[in-house]
Amino acid sequence: MVSKLLIFSALFSLALAKPTARSMKVRESRQNVPAGFVRTGAAAPDTELKLRIALVQSDPEGLVDALYAVSTPGSASYGEHLSKEEVEKFVTPTAQSSEAVDAWLQQVGLSATAISPAGDWLSVSVPVSKANEIFDADFAVYTHSETGKQAIRTMSYSIPDALEGHLDFVHPTISFPSPKGLRPVISTPDNLQNRAIEPLATCSTTAVTPACIQSIYGIPSTKATQKTNGLGVSGFIDQFANSADLKTFLSKFRTDLAGTTFALQTLDGGSNSQTPSQAGIEANLDIQYTVGVASGVPVTFISVGNNFQDGDLGGFLDIINFLLGESNPPQVLTTSYGDNESDISRSLANNLCNAYAQLGARGTSILFASGDGGVSGGQSQSCTKFVPTFPSGCPFMTSVGATQLTSSSGAETAATFSSGGFSNYFGIPSYQSSVVSSYLSSIGSTNSGKFNTSGRAFPDVAAIGVDLEIVVDGRTETVDGTSCSSPVFSSVISLINDALIAEGKSPLGFLNPFLYANPSAFNDITTGDNPGCNTNGFKAAKGWDPVTGLGTPNFAKLKAAAGV
């Protein structure tokens, strides 16, 4: 009781003091406005801002330790995934932190709503004038010259000294929105030609179907049997998965799965229109190549609407908090969207990465397409230094690059668009330190100074990503991109999980320690590169490389490595 009174008293004094007199500390700042944005004037004082406040989590280091303990082969706790309640203990703010932030909010006249299961994220609405005052900020209107997109942001903000160690950061403040919004990572989504291509029994360099993928990776076509096994497919930016198109796709390429469909979950006002003309290329691709390759595994399309609680993250954090709130989240989650790491602040990136750690500790494998810009980011762009993508730089998820066929026999080479490189925010995790060191030694001074040699490296693995046949609005078309690769690799993991669950064993969960411990379970891709930034980028090489990772899956070997 005494500590509560002291906190309340100190914060009451701070709240009543003038901004210049308060004891404040800069929490975050940035030196330069992101490229393309210009300040176009002060924000109107009465404009309402929807700010999110992240509280300091109680034991994030303990969470990471627990994640590795249940995810590392050979660990005494391997496979003993944590419950919802066990995970929340690591991230729920201490009573002292919650009381300190609550007392301060009361004194500045703000009311907050918890927007995460553990209560470590709060949402508040505040006019610009008050936000400037209580955070010693200068919220202004910034406009993107090319797109005209506007955002109200500040170049720095401060918090009271008394909240140091309790309030982690405030968002959106110094993070700027991506001018083009959250992007699916498809290389050829526009002007697709209608093609009438029959199902292929073997692979072709001009058409990839589920049968081709099963052939080159040894994936069985026998149906999974475990109904408790689940594969989640993320959907964003009003990309809708069309059931009629899936039916047509299966009738062409997986007649044995005729009648198979998918479940739907929604959040943030999400929906899944079945109007044929609103069928999304990305959504259809992801659904068709999970249902069509992960034979019989229950697939759920998780549609995230535009009523975001996480601001500029575009629903990336919202979908994880949504799944963390479930008693039984899916064992695999695949996402084919992304952005560039530099578009968000380090604090925000770290918080989202820790959310992946929470879901991974629960037993979910989180996979993302690495991006389609080679070394120039999520999509090809002008640059002088290599651009890492996000969230591929986070060490607690699995980044999937892309390959393409060089012959009908199934030989593969790196896809030139396959994003890969090194994070500027996260260091090299122990599970990949050896292979990354070997690769860096092999390239010597090539591209020296253009990337962070001490950063977490990506992608981790790869899968076919060129000329995949899909059905959109009743038409058969082809697409390229790491968007193709992530659902394919996720399907492999889901089928292995089916076998594990059938034997009463735990699903694989966070994959990376297991994957890097079994490099021989991959088809090593040693040719190709991922150019960008006026360079040839990185070269594929023997062993791990920042184009195709460890390589593409050999189903039988991966399944054996998993112990089934």
From TrEMBL:
It catalyses: Release of an N-terminal tripeptide from a polypeptide. Residues 207-564 form the Peptidase S53 domain. Keywords: Calcium, Glycoprotein, Hydrolase, Metal-binding, Protease, Secreted, Serine protease, Signal, Virulence, Zymogen. Its main location: secreted. InterPro entries: Peptidase_S8/S53_dom, Peptidase_S8/S53_dom_sf, S53_propep, Sedolisin_dom, Tripeptidyl-peptidase_I. Binds 1 Ca(2+) ion per subunit. GO terms for molecular function: metal ion binding; serine-type endopeptidase activity; tripeptidyl-peptidase activity. PROSITE patterns: SEDOLISIN. The active site is at E282, D286, S483. Its EC number is 3.4.14.10. Residues 1-17 form the signal peptide. One of its GO terms (biological process) is proteolysis. GO terms for cellular component: extracellular region. Its cofactor is Ca(2+). Ca(2+) binds at D524, I525, G543, D545. The keyword Calcium applies. It comes from the Eukaryota. Pfam families: Peptidase_S8 (PF00082), Pro-kuma_activ (PF09286). It is an enzyme of class 3 (hydrolase). PANTHER family: PROTEASE S8 TRIPEPTIDYL PEPTIDASE I CLN2 (PTHR14218), TRIPEPTIDYL-PEPTIDASE 1 (PTHR14218:SF15). Secreted tripeptidyl-peptidase which degrades proteins at acidic pHs and is involved in virulence. This is tripeptidyl-peptidase II. It comes from Phanerochaete sordida.
